[in-house]
Write a structure and sequence with these properties.
Blueprint (H helix, E strand, L loop, with lengths): L2 H8 L8 H5 L21 H7 L1 H12 L7 E8 L9 H4 L8 H8 L7 H12 L25 E7 L11 E8 L6 E7 L7 E6 L6 E7 L14 H10 L5 H14 L2 H11 L9 H10 L3 H12 L5
This protein binds a DNA duplex through helix 7 and strand 3.
Amino acid sequence: MSNETKDFYNYQFPSSFSLYDMMNLPTSAPSSYGNNGFDLSSYSFTDCLQSSPGAYDSLLQKTFGLSPSSSEVFNSSIDQESKRDVSNDVTGETPTRVSAPSSSSEADHPGEDSGKSQIRKRELAEDGGEENQNSKKVGKTKKNEEKKQREPRVSFMTKSEVDHLEDGYRWRKYGQKAVKNSPYPRSYYRCTTQKCNVKKRVERSFQDPTVVITTYEGQHNHPIPTNLRGNSAAAAMYSDFMTPRSFTHDMFRTAAYTSGGSVEGALDYGYGQSGYGSVNANPNSSHQNYHQGGEYELLKEILPSIFFKQEH
DNA sequence: CGCCTTTGACCCGCGC
DNA sequence: GCGCGGGTCAAAGGCG
């Protein structure tokens, strides 16, 4: 449990504080809210959704285009690199909720190596190509590099029969490891788009084999590939979660637009105009669009429990 | 042929 | 120092 999270939960929002206000919180907010204005790093999406099941189902269907019974995202969490004492963050904040130790440990692991190898690789490429053949032998590199800034992480628990959930992006599997204390392996995927180093790990909960735990790390720096094979709205939602500062913003915007028509519409809006997870979208248009989308009431229904959790 | 998965080896951090 | 576990690499092979 991080102090930032506590502070966030304990923060007294003005009574008139709205979704719109929150989405436009100043970047240079007090440190107690975390580096990004406020810290959603341990927030569990389910917290709010469970408090309003109807809204949950509605959002699921409208955003994911899924019926809750098919493939159900019923837990998620956001991890951010700034906090390392997150051992209880995923489940600690919500001890009675859908808990999965694997998820917890998953989100907890510092991921020290993430990106390190890539950096090492780059260094090798620069320092001497001939070393490529012995790349595996090259151990000590200037890992003294400034402490690797870890990418924000988002983990989802999804009820699904398939391990690798379609999310609209293209992934290449680059590894698979057996997970300790679990009969199910963990798979490692990397976004195939050039210069996009987003990764995701997929594993099946050993406690509930019907649950797939997907952990995204990093942020896509590109739109969802046009030749979508899956549910683009789901993709938009997944990717939006990866931008903690804006996840509510874009997520609900996506929800609103998905409800209004095609998923392409949601895509176009979410990625074509405002950029990927941009928090600086035109506030006026955004604000208005929440209403236009017709889901504003739904959002209002959901949101308070998200951000006013433990509010007194 | 390009893209993807598989898989054993390797690297690294951490705890003992 | 050593072993363990997590994460990554990259060669080899499969597939459309």
